[in-house]
Amino acid sequence: MFSRLQTKLTVLYAGLFALALSLVAVTVYLAIVGNAQQAVRKELTATGTVFDRVWALRTQRLHDGADLLSRDFGFRAAVATHDGPTVESAISNLRQRLGLDLAFTVGVDGEVVGVDPAQLDLEKLWTALDSGDDAQGVFIVNGAPYQVISAPIMAPSLTGWVVFAAKLDKREMRALEQLSAIGLNAEVFDRRGDGWITSDSGPGNNSMAAFVEGAIRDKTGKPALLKVDGEDSLVLVKPLKSLAQDGAAALVLRYPMAEAMAPYRPLMAGVILVGLIGAALVAAASWALSRGLARPIIALDDAARRLQRGEDVRVEIQTHDEIGRLADSFNLMAAEIRQREAKITHQALHDEETGLPNRRALEREITARLSAAGPGEHVVVSATGLDRFTFVRSAIGYDLATQLITQLAARISLIAPDTFIGRLTTSTLCVVSTQDDIEATLGRIEALLAGLEAPIRVGGEMVDINMTVGIATTEPGGLDAPGLIEQSMIGLDQARAARRKVMRFDPAAYGDPSGNLSLMSQMLDGVGNGALFLNHQPKLDLRSGKITGVEALVRWKHPTRGMMRPDLFVEMAEETGYIRALTDFVLTQAIADQKTLRAAGHDVLMSVNVSGRLIDDADFAERAIAQVTREDARVCFEITETAVIGNPDVALGVLDRLAAAGIPVSIDDYGSGLSSLAYLKQIRADELKIDKAFVLTLEAGSKDALLVKSTVDLAHSLGMKVTAEGVETREALGVLQLMGCDIAQGYFIARPMGVEPLTNFLESWSIELPETMEEPKVHSA
Amino acid sequence: MKFFATLLIVAFFATSAAAGSLTVTVRGADGKPVADAVVTVYPGGQPTKGPIKFPWPYRVAQQNIQFTPFVLIAPAGAEVAFPNFDKVRHHVYSFSAGNKFELKLYGKEENRTVKLPTAGVAAIGCNIHDQMVGFIRVVDTAYAAKTDASGVATINDIPSGAVVARLWHPYLRALKNEKTLATTAISGGASRESIAVELRAPAADH
Q: How many domains does the structure of chain A reveal?
């Protein structure tokens, strides 16, 4: 209901006090009302009793007078003899003497003397008088109630009655009211017709009339509460004897409660005033108290919100109660949160080993510099790689290697103080700077690199270091931070590949790596739709002059990009894992093409290139062997020597299995890569293919000719045939034949071609070869 | 004596020739016999002409502070005696119209007489003793009698023919304390009538 604690407390306390006070006030009021009512009831009852006595006394007095008169002999004589004037004078005399309102005689014959008979209901009066001796009671004369007393006149028999009447008027009632200790109101009601009326004030009000009627009927002799003219009154109804039998009259004593309450009014006012002052004080006090209580809570609430927003907060509350302790705890908590946050932030932005900023911190820095860079300014990111770091690390240990990185970073920061240095990878530092002139910067970096490569002292020893730097730059609005870092790393790789110390990222060389994967899937599509196909390059047997084999070369005619360079997509397939699918296709297609050629009457050995990535894949070997055997194909697997180096045990085992299955193996591109005589010895190959780099420049007497000759001899001595690639001239062919080379392959003989042209080629092939002097010596391994 | 004898003979003849008697029995509303009720008969509805003489003395004595008898029937113009047998004095009066009199204080053994000239009622009282009340029924017919303690009154020798018979009692609740009886004719022999009347209670403290 209330959102503020202070309001809540204030309302609660003030409300409680007001409630308690109201209860007290109500109790006091009820007690007072009860008390006052009790007092008034007593007084009313007492006044009623007094009235009874007064009534009786007056009745007696009137009766005495009437009796006296009725017995006077002269009066009786006058009445009996109908001496009207005498009777009237006698009555008038007594009326004045007794101070009566009315005095008259009524004869048994109905004759009235002393009052105008028209003023009263003679028949009712006569009946009442005749019904008994000494008839008395209230009777209406001339519209007003009178107390009527009668006495019979015996002369000596009943001659008539002396009637005395006293008016029950206001004056009479005032006299009665004055007998009471309290200022009550007395009225005489009499029943006329259906209702009760009081002659003083005309017809009485309805509630009063109904109340009198009820009281008379129920004979309740006790005061009761009644609302008269809108105010509560205590009313006592005392029935009065009526002279006429069918008449009824009552004395009604009434006392307004408001008057009874009047003496207590100052007391009630006092109670209410004191209550209001008290309530105001309580409200003010609770307001102040709750303010004291709520203020620190509000401060804490505010502080908690600010803490949530990450602000540095401290609540100053100097009390020693629960709230004070809460504030202390809050401050402690806030401080610890700040510490932890700082630690987490530091951890999030720094390398744990060296304490240098990490990649995330670098990204932030780059982003910050990019947004701060002005026009013409570039953000330069230099990925500075420590060469051969794994060797260094295994030589000097992890701790010292880490120290090495740290010191190197310190050295860079010393010579290039405006830069921001972080650690990108284990062996790579990243230097971020903002520059105007990129070319000059590149030069400067190369110049500085010499100084940086000075040996570093770690653990008491001097360690030689070599570094390569890959650089990426961008202007604001260009690359974002992660892109920039990525390019610098690629630049580093490119520099290393190019064996350069410093190199800027070369987007042309990098190509589009993200396109590679989609290219590969397109290549697989090509397997099905014929975009991928084989061209075969014939291999000439230099001894027989016949085409004894072909090398199956894969070709890809891309639907939109045209002919794809084989070295490009084959290498890509090797790197992305698609090489196996590609090789499967080549092998299957080669076997199929061989069948086509066989059908045309040409049985040639199919040479298929097998990637180094597959040669140590035993599973591939099993399936290839099974396929070749099943199809009864004659296939030679061409592999490179380096393929064996990666995992020699498995690779050599696979080669053994191929040999056992009768599948010849050819060592491809011999001499171009790393050639190991040790492996050459172990590989059970049938053929050695000399790389075309040697053959293309083959001239008599050159170093290459020497190498080729010795290689031919070497192969022959290891029991292998020798194939020369790249034979493009008749001269080269001649030289090779002279050197004892067994097979030649190259443009001079034929370019690679499809199966159909090949069939035609084989049909029409003939060549004149000079006779060789000696048979080649072939030794089995 | 001769006078008496003559009267008796006349009466006898009258009776024997054409006369009857009327016996009236009066009872109250409670069924008890009412004494001191006076029955008067007017043959032909006319008062008796000539002097009237009743066989009882015209005397109301005061004895034990009471009038005795309570009711006396006397003919109009008769002299009624008021002897005092009490030791105290009495002051007898009547305010009744036509028969007003006052016998001022007189003592024991004194006898006063009053002539009551008018037919009607003389209510007599004593000015000294309020409780003393008596009535003299002054009649103008010879045929009158009052009921005895058993409530019976008999009038003999009423000439046959139409009559007006009336009943009076001091406390009879009727105009002038009088009622007309049902009997309207007397034939030879005895006529009888019973009547129930309502009486007003006499004033208690008198």
A: 4
